[in-house]
Structure formats: C-alpha cells, structure tokens
Amino acid sequence: MTEGARDLVWPDLAEGGWRSLAFEPFRDRVEIHWLERGTGGEPSVALLRYAAGARVPRHRHAGLETIVVLDGAQSDAHGTYAKGSVVINRPGTSHEVWSDEGCVVLIQWDRPVEILGDEE
After folding, report:
1. pTM of the entire structure?
2. Which pLDDT tens digit goes with each residue over 48-107?
3. Phi, psi (5° rounding) for residue 14?
4. Taking a C-beta distance cutoff of 8 angstroms, is the pair 50, 25 a contact?
5. Where do transmembrane segments lie in this chain (predicted)?
6. Residue 110 pairs with which residues in a beta bridge?
7. Residue 72: left (phi > 0), alpha (psi -120 to 50), or beta?
8. What sign for the dihedral angle of Cα 39, 19, 24, 100?
9. Helix (H/G/I), strand (E/B), else coil: 20
10. What is the DSSP string of the chain?
11. How far is CA 119 from CA 24, 35, 57, 60, 77, in A?
C-alpha cells in the first residue's frame, strides 16, 4: 500500500449494517450516504435509500454504473430487481428508476449521470 492510501471496509453492509449509517437528502424521496465521493468526475460509491414510491428521473450514464440491491426492490423499464440483484448500466444507456416498496441500493458510478427528465 502506498503512503496515504487507505482501504475502506464495511464488513456487515450487505447484512443490514447500512441501517446505522446517516443519510442525507439527495433527490425527492431519495437519500444518500456517500461511501467514497469522487470529485471532478472521479468514480463514486454510495448507498441510496428510496422511500416507497420514490423515482429518479430519466438519466443517461456517462460511465459504467453498478447497482447491488441490499433491501427491497428497485425497478426500471426492463424489470424489477429484488434484494441480492446486481444491475450494470453501460455507458450511453438511459433509464428512469423507481421503487414501489422502497429499497436500499449500493451504487458505484464511474462518472456523474446526466438528468434528462421526461425527454429521451
């Protein structure tokens, strides 16, 4: 390990350890807990907590996005992804995301997304 480098470890995150973490507002009815917040377009990793019925508007992925559903279920136009699902969204793809029942997801994105709203 180089000087100044560090490992970040959450040993019980997938088993519910996220419940003790502090979340802050992110979007309407969606909260975030940053695990590693990239700056200047660097990759980021966070937990998103969706309230029941929450939606994230249509957005385009500038880089790879990886999602692991830790609790509940998240949906997009391609399906509904229950706890334990892994979803990979490739660069250039776009979608809207929602959760009917509420959910918590671990999300990693290489670059910030571009919000498109209702436009394609």
Report:
1. 0.90
2. 999 999 999 999 999 999 999 999 999 999 999 999 999 999 999 999 999 999 999 999
3. -70, -20
4. no
5. none
6. none
7. left
8. positive
9. helix
10. --TT------TTGGGTGGGGS--EEEETTEEEEEEE--STT--EEEEEEEPTTEEEEEEE-SS-EEEEEEEEEEEETTEEEETT-EEEE-TT-EEEEEESS-EEEEEEESS--EEEET--
11. 28, 31, 10, 11, 15
Q: Which domains does the chain have, with CATH numbers?
A: 26-114 (2.60.120.10)
Asked whether the beta carbons of 119 and 58 are under 8 A apart, the reply is yes
In this predicted model, what pLDDT tens digit does every residue of 25-50 receive, in sequence order? 999 999 999 999 988 778 999 999 99
In 3D space, the residue among 107, 19, 1, 17 whose CA is nearest the CA of residue 64 turns out to be 107
Tokens describing residue 91: 């660069």
